[in-house]
Design a protein that fits this description.
This protein has about 100 residues and is α+β, with helices and mostly antiparallel strands. Helices cover about 45% and strands about 10% of the residues.
């Protein structure tokens, strides 16, 4: 995993206007060592589902998501997301950033 790529993906999560399969695929490719190769129809919906985004949170790490209908923020083990459009995007951004600072 490339630390700069993880940070770039976190930024893409924060700037996304909503769930995006292309972003989900890019994340899946980056963490494929952990989740295995995914066929296009098997890519976890990291940007749409909090359950899928939790796959990005490493075992033993605390996490939290807060927000309202307009903006969400995520935290994973002290790594924060900036504002994101969905709870899943905020959690994904924070989890990717946590991976980037402590691979």
């Amino acid at each position: 995993m490339s630390i700069s790529r993880l940070e770039a993906l976190a930024r893409l999560c924060e700037s996304a206007s909503g769930p995006a399969w292309v972003l989900d695929k890019e994340i899946a490719v980056e963490i494929r060592e952990e989740i295995g190769d995914c066929a296009d129809d098997e890519v976890p919906a990291f940007s749409m589902s909090v359950d899928a985004a939790l796959m990005l949170v490493r075992p033993g790490k605390g996490w939290n998501v807060q927000g309202n209908m307009d903006v969400f923020y995520g935290v994973v083990a002290g790594s924060y997301s900036k504002s994101a459009k969905t709870a899943a995007l905020a959690l994904s951004a924070a989890a990717l950033r946590d991976r980037a600072v402590a691979p």
